[in-house]
Amino acid sequence: MARTNLLLSALPKRERLDVLALCEVVQLTFGTVLCEPRRPYLHAHFPLTGLISLVAGVDGEPAVELTMIGREGMLGASLLLSVDEAPQRAIVQAAGTSLRLEAAALRRMLPESPALSRRIGRYLHEQLIELAQTAACMQFHPVEARLARWLLMTQDRVPGDRLQLTHQFLADMLGVRRSAVTIASGALKHRGLIEYSRGEIRVLDRSGLERAACGCYGMRHA
Description:
Elements: H1 6-9, H2 13-22, E1 24-28, E2 33-35, E3 43-47, E4 51-56, E5 64-69, E6 89-94, E7 96-102, H3 103-109, H4 114-140, H5 143-157, E8 162-164, H6 167-174, H7 178-190, E9 194-197, E10 200-203, H8 206-212, H9 215-220
Antiparallel strand pairs: 1-7, 2-6, 3-7, 4-5, 4-6, 8-10, 9-10
Helix pairs in contact: 5-7, 5-8, 6-7
């Protein structure tokens, strides 16, 4: 059974049903690019079980993750501001399902849906805070603590304790060399917090991983 998108579930029943009537459930396949920077949104997505990463790169370097979107939010929130172009690339980080809504349909509905507009506005505010915190985190915190935070944030949005992630993918998301991820994940494994093999990471000690993470994770949950 599909999980609920929390942004939509917080709406009054009438507005929620109006949105759902225009949505279709689609599969999110790992690695699929949902939008590109400076190109118009075709659809908004409200993830149910999948996970979407917003990434950006400079000067030909591999893209680094800025933030992630799970069932707590949506892709395409900037449509609220009458900004039709996507600010970053959006790529599916974990396979799952999503409610997909045509961008044009969302734009038409916003002026007559005050609760939806407020919820999207609040979510945009939360995204801006997380983007700023991620920038500071990348500058000042060690890779091991950042990796622990990233794994926790992913597990918050993806059910279960097993995450399908390679070291190279983690390196790209964290903006570091693969060798740095190997060292950091090895340290977490040595402490009994995770185990990994063949592209899968399993969280063994959630509480210990929270203690290993940088304070940015605690700030998000304050």
